[in-house]
Design the sequence.
């Protein structure tokens, strides 16, 4: 009888406890109405809990007077008392500074910065300078600790030299560039108006995830997205910038006194004893001077004659450059979609009076096709035109074979103007013409301000970058992600020197390889593909298995494939006729050439991350890369890494100590072999071609390939 009474009492207690629990369900979204998966929902002060699914839904059994705690990386934590409710519809706001506190680059998965054991910097678009920043690389200057980001010149479109880890190889120091997880070939030209944030990973332990590409570091650009159930919003941004050459000394180098020989009226004399004056062709004679080898007291003490105009050559050499940047966009979304469209135009001038025009059309479209399965397509189309006489970098970046040696020496040097007699007007014209004098002084130099009369060049680029992303999140544990990116880039260059046989000073000076002119046309086309398939396996022992151990683990397995295909052609005609049109077919001498290459690399990655709450964590990974540039293509290059952190601040609990962490990392990463030598086939013994009469023959190179390089 006593046993029956005890059992009844226990059942009554259990029934009472069960009656005090209730089921609470609901949905968690962001401020734009987008469902947030992976938010931890648990009773405050207790272990365990559940996570929201792909649609942001959750269901949990709680005591009747419980307070639910909602937490997630990148969002402000929220407490909700559910004593009088059984459903919760919650909007979670993005945590202050979350974009700089959560990183993806170099970690493989979104990671709270306090759990980070590698060196990754994050720059939000809101942190970009408020001045007229015209490019993404400019926006990073001064924003990433330890990084050296410099623009070599003020030329429009000039890309920055970026060194994230110092000079650590004999080859390139350029980091790889990712846009929303997919690699592109160049950061130049990307639309800054479409950028949401930029992450920069500098260490080899971060670069290891990118294998034979990542030794110089990684810059990843994340573009702006729309929001679910968000009304269409329009944004407009317009900037203007004024650029001036830094001249110093008040911007004036005009001499106030001179030491040349003069007549009784103070006129400066030439070598023949006549007052100096330009010849009929605009060329000035040199003034007569005292012999300073015998007259040691010679000094600039004489005033210039009132009738001799003097010119500020700095004003003639450089102009104020006014540039305009305008962008307009709209974003929004429906119940299962979001969108962003951006159009930007840049009109940029240089102090040398050249112009670059760039137009960017960007789209970011996201769709939830069914529960857990999303598709996103990101596209950016770039149209660029420029007439930069000194735009050498635009050519050499795109023309890998047979570059125009003459163009590489294009004169944008203004020293001649600054080292000349102050009475010479470098903007003077030949009598009865609009042509600038080519040789205003009897010396072996040409007047750079006359170059536009005889030399013109144009560059046109059409570049399309597209990134398609498929993602499926299983109800628990697994996530599949596939990204495919393709970059199509077409470049055209035209470089022409007019026929100058009838020019006034043709016997003294001319522009180009011949006074009869030349025309060269270059075309380059490249296709770059990046395919990335990833499987994630995530576990949370507290939530998934009701364990008391606060362990979270993420396993990442990836296959990464890249392919570059490039070809270029050129044709050139020398000695053009005086009559139009100036075309290569009418030139006396004609030459042409081409070049092509194909480059493939692929690799496998396994990476494991384990965290014990917020206290400590470790990660380890392995990547194996195969590359068409490796001499023995069957032999991969393997890279390892291991990282760890320990947050002492979790133990010390000092009020004003926000974070105190010890971290360490080891990793290896590589640089593609061609980066060392510029020759895509040096590691392989390949046949080369030679012209024999009217036939083409093959021969073995004198230097054999070395597969061990």
Sequence:
């Amino acid at each position: 009888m006593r046993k029956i009474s005890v059992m009844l009492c226990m059942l009554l207690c259990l029934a009472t406890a069960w009656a005090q629990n209730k089921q609470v369900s609901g949905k968690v979204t962001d401020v734009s109405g987008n469902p947030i998966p992976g938010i931890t929902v648990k009773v405050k002060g207790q272990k365990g809990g559940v996570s929201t699914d792909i649609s942001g839904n959750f269901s949990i059994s709680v005591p009747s007077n419980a307070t639910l705690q909602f937490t997630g990386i990148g969002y402000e934590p929220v407490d909700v008392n559910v004593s009088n409710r059984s459903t919760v519809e919650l909007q979670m706001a993005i945590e202050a500074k979350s974009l700089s506190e959560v990183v993806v680059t170099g970690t493989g998965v979104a990671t709270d910065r306090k759990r980070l054991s590698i060196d990754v910097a994050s720059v939000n678009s809101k942190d970009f300078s408020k001045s007229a920043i015209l490019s993404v690389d400019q926006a990073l200057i001064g924003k990433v600790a330890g990084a050296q980001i410099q623009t070599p010149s003020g030329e429009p479109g000039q890309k920055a030299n970026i060194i994230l880890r110092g000079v650590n190889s004999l080859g390139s120091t350029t980091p790889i560039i990712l846009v929303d997880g997919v690699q592109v070939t160049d950061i130049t030209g990307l639309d800054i108006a479409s950028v949401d944030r930029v992450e920069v990973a500098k260490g080899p332990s971060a670069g290891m995830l990118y294998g034979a590409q990542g030794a110089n570091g990684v810059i990843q650009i994340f573009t702006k997205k729309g929001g679910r159930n968000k009304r269409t919003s329009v944004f407009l941004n317009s900037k203007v910038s004024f650029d001036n050459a830094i001249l110093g000394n008040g911007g004036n180098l005009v001499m106030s006194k001179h030491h040349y020989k003069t007549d009784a009226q103070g006129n400066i004399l030439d070598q023949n004893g006549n007052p100096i004056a330009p010849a009929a062709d605009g060329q000035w004679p040199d003034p007569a001077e005292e012999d300073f080898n015998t007259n040691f007291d010679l000094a600039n003490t004489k005033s210039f004659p009132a009738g001799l105009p003097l010119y500020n050559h700095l004003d003639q050499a450089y102009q104020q450059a006014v540039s305009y940047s305008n962008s307009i966009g709209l974003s929004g979304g429906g119940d299962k979609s979001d969108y962003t469209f951006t159009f930007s135009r840049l009109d940029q001038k240089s102090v040398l009076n050249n112009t670059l025009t760039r137009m960017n059309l960007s789209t970011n479209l996201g769709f939830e096709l069914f529960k857990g399965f999303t598709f996103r397509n990101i596209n950016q189309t770039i149209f660029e035109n420029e007439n930069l006489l000194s735009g050498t970098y635009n050519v050499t970046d795109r023309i890998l074979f047979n570059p125009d040696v003459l163009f590489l020496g294009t004169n944008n040097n203004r020293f001649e103007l600054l080292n000349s007699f102050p009475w010479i007007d470098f903007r003077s014209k030949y009598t009865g013409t609009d042509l600038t004098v080519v040789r205003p002084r009897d010396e072996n130099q040409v007047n750079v301000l006359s170059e536009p009369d005889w030399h013109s060049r144009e560059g046109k680029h059409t570049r399309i970058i597209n990134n398609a992303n498929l993602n499926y999140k299983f109800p628990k544990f697994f996530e599949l992600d596939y990204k495919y990116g393709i970059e199509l880039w077409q470049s055209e260059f035209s470089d022409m020197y007019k026929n100058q046989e009838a020019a006034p000073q043709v016997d003294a000076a001319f522009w180009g390889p011949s006074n009869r002119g030349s025309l060269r046309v270059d075309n380059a086309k490249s296709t770059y593909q990046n395919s990335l398939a990833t499987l994630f396996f995530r576990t949370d022992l507290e939530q998934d298995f009701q364990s008391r151990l606060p362990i979270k683990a993420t396993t990442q397995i990836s296959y990464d494939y890249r392919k570059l295909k490039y070809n270029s052609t050129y044709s050139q005609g020398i000695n053009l006729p005086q009559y139009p049109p100036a075309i290569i077919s009418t030139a006396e001498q004609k030459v042409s050439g081409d070049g092509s290459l194909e480059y493939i690399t692929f690799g496998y990655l396994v990476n494991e991350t384990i965290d014990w709450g917020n206290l400590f964590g470790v990660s380890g990974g392995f990547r194996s890369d195969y590359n068409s540039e490796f001499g023995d293509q069957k032999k991969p290059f393997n890279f390892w890494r291991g990282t760890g952190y320990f947050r002492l601040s979790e133990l010390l609990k000092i009020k004003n100590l926000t974070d105190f962490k010890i971290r360490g990392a080891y990793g290896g990463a590589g640089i593609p072999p061609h980066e060392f030598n510029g020759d895509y086939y040096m590691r392989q013994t390949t046949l080369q071609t030679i012209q024999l009469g009217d036939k083409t023959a093959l021969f073995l190179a004198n230097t054999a390939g070395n597969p061990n390089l």
